[in-house]
Amino acid sequence: MKIVLNAFRCLQYWDALKLCAEYNVPITDDLADKLTPSPNGTMSDSERTSILIELGELCLSQGQYHLACKQFTQAGSRIAAMKALLRSGDTSKIIFFANVSKQKEIYVMAANYLQTLDDWRSNVDYMRTIVQFYTRGRAPESLASFYESCAHVSINICS
């Protein structure tokens, strides 16, 4: 841990990340913040983005999905951030992130995730959110498929 922080202090971000990966140094919120290059520093934007993506990948490999989401978001890679959140299974954060991101692909990813939940059929809020996300994501085929699933559920309940 001390070696990682020393590499960071010398602004050797790549070396610090490599050490974290090699020695399985757990990435905590505090360490992730320290390893995140400042946007106001002397580093180029592309270099900063590469470091953030690498840090996000490292967080993913350690199961730190929320931290990975944060790093990918800072790098501007919202799709990767959403994929990290989907792996976390944190439904409320997935819905929040989709609403904030306002990207078609992310809306569809969130709606698809909500449909994998066991209780979407009994949760009216989930059903509304799925319809809303498919509509915002401009995915009429997926929306039609969802309505078909709803119809099958209704038929099975009535039978």
UniProtKB/TrEMBL annotation:
Per the annotation, which location comes first and is thus the protein's main one? Answer: other
Q: Which GO terms describe its cellular component?
A: axoneme; ciliary basal body; intraciliary transport particle A
- Can the keyword Transit peptide be found in this entry's annotation? no
- Check the record and name the InterPro entries matching this protein: TPR_IF140/IFT172/WDR19
All residue ranges annotated as the IF140/IFT172/WDR19 TPR domain in the record? 12-133
Q: What's one Pfam family the UniProt record gives for this protein?
A: TPR_IF140-IFT172
Recite the UniProt keywords alphabetically.
Cell projection, Cilium, Repeat, WD repeat
Task: Give me any GO biological process, just one.
Answer: intraciliary retrograde transport
Repeat as a keyword of this entry, yes or no, is yes
Q: Where in the cell is it found?
A: Cell projection, Cilium
Q: Spell out the PANTHER family in the cross-references.
A: IFT140/172-RELATED, INTRAFLAGELLAR TRANSPORT PROTEIN 140 HOMOLOG
> What name does the UniProt record give this protein?
IF140/IFT172/WDR19 TPR domain-containing protein
UniProt organism field: Paragonimus heterotremus
